[in-house]
Amino acid sequence: MSAADGHAGGGRLSVTLQSVSxxxxxxxxxxxxxxxxxxxxxxxxVCAVLTLPFLIPVSIPGVSTVFGLAIILFSVGVTVNxxxxxxxxxxxxxxxxxxxxxxxxxxxxxxxxxERVVRPRLQFVAGTAGARLLHGxxxxxxxxxxxxxxxxxxxxxxxxxxAILLLALGLLERDGLLLIAGHLMNxxxxxxxxxxxxxxxxxxxxxxxxxx
Length: 212
Description:
Blueprint: H1 13-23, E1 28-30, H2 31-38, H3 43-51, H4 63-80, H5 88-91, E2 94-96, H6 97-117, H7 129-146, H8 158-173, H9 176-211
């Protein structure tokens, strides 16, 4: 797989999505197989594709850990412009192919809507080496948030997934507006998780008070 950020096969995420979705046969699939299906598309497009199962508020067991770690490693690779090493345990872990295929199919509408508005703009936001470090850090943060243990809470995977998708597409298309939106979505995710944690602490204290 190339370390380049450019597109292949017409440059549309929806084209890659359709190809991957129709190729997910059988009952299980590994990340290694999915990367082979994506092909020479570049690390940013890989990050974008791996967010798609999280664009719908449904949890697929094991996927957020595997894809989240892969996104973190690819995001580091994007930042330093070097293909990352991925551990065999992550590459070869078996994931439910039918659930992933369904998620990709449902996410295709979201992707198509985003693609209609993506274009080069506010390029000073994306055009410098320092900006690349900032946006790469945002991708890493999104991957970390994706791996947080809130998988069964509605939108806990969807919010960081959208953040990563916006950041990846923003870097691919030099779209500064998408990049800003991606960082804001990371902030919204952190606020959401903070509310969840605060609510859990308050509930725990209330329960302790009733039992005490």
